[in-house]
Amino acid sequence: MTIAIIGAGLGGLALARVLHVNGIEAVVYERESSRAARGQGGMLDIHSGTGQRALREAGLIDQFHAIARGEGQDMRLLEPDGTLLWQEDTPDDAPLARPEVDRADLRGMLLDSLPDGTVRWGRAFASAEDGMVRFADGSSAPYDLLVGADGAESRVRALLTDARPAHTGQNIVELGIPDIDRTHPDLAAMVGRGNYWVLGDGQSLGAQRNGDGRVRVYASFHPTPADWFATSGIPFDDPAAARERLLELFSGWHAKFRALIAACDDTVQPRPLTTLPVGLTWPSKPGITLLGDAAHLMPPVGQGANMALLDGALLALALASHPDDFSAAVKDYETEMFERSAKVGQMSARMQEMVTAPDAARRMLAFFQPG
């Protein structure tokens, strides 16, 4: 039985690894030309009951703990006028319930755990029919089970459902400060070791410490339409001018927050946020299924990577339980995944509503200190 996994993201690699641990081989097809073809994004908090559960099934939990950053669980919450509402510092001996890890390091760990040749690079999915998957370069490969692990803009998804991601009304500009401890020690001390949130009415500013010394800065605007970047006046092809425009947009904010923007380098990326409908399902179809963002794209509030990892692990375990009946395995997996992702999707939507509300800072404070 041939298992073809489309996409070498966290979910697809977790699936391949847990299958390998259970004596089942698969092939992962990835459109990028190599593992280093592009940056892999910032930090992820990997939760003990979901993402870490998947890594235990993969036999990689010790390796994960070696690269995880417990101090990345630190959090500071502020208002635009500079008022500090909440600060949480993680003790050195605290349990690793939600440690942060660089996405690139986590992906690299999964890639290194697979046999040579498992991932076939430079294979962009084009179509699938009659047990053959075809790629943009004209090549093809057979499959008995095709797994779409190809992310938010999944092309495999169209084989199962007409659902497409919809804009959430939030647009984010990603920036960054490299080597912040050396280049801007005052800002490094302000941000701290983990996450730094400043929540305002219609705008927010976030900063996240990465393991390589870089701080990623996220400027958020909401509610804004899907085409807001085109009308925002932010010239993304001119980083210096883009920073100046962002400083204008945050003109009423405390000077220390504007200093974060001014200190950023030339990485200025637009990030429109989209999601799939909460509770999305489809009729089970023999030979095809989805996992991760391809199946249940959620707001970026800390659940997406964990769900993808767990999807991959649980699909692998279902296949190992039904090695001669992929259809039964897929039905079992989808039944559990639909219920689980609907609950997490509802929770993520509520969190997204909270962090984009006019009184987001106070609502988040109430969340952190209930009662």
Short description:
NADPH binds at residue 38. The protein is 35% helix and 22% strand. It has helices at 10-21, 51-57, 61-67, 103-112, 180-183, 185-191, 228-231, 239-249, 255-262, 293-296, 304-321, 326-355, 360-368; strands spanning 3-6, 27-30, 43-45, 75-78, 84-88, 100-102, 119-121, 125-129, 132-135, 140-142, 145-148, 166-177, 195-199, 203-209, 215-221, 269-275, 288-290.
Rough outline: globular
How are strands sequenced across the largest beta sheet? 5-4-13-14-15-12-16
CATH architectural category of the largest domain? 3-Layer(bba) Sandwich
CATH class wording of the largest domain:
Alpha Beta
Radius of gyration: 21 Å
**Number of separate helices:** 13
The stretches of 5 or more residues where confidence is low (pLDDT under 50) are: none
Can you tell me the CATH superfamily of the largest domain?
FAD/NAD(P)-binding domain
Main pleated sheet: 7 strands, mixed
Number-wise, the strands total 17
- The arrangement of helices and strands along the chain is EHEEHHEEEHEEEEEEHHEEEHHHEEHHHH
Tally of separate domains: 2
Strand content: 15-25%
CATH domain topology of the largest domain: FAD/NAD(P)-binding domain
Helical amount among residues, as a percent range?
Answer: 25-40%
Structural category is alpha/beta
- On the 0-100 scale, what is the average pLDDT? 95
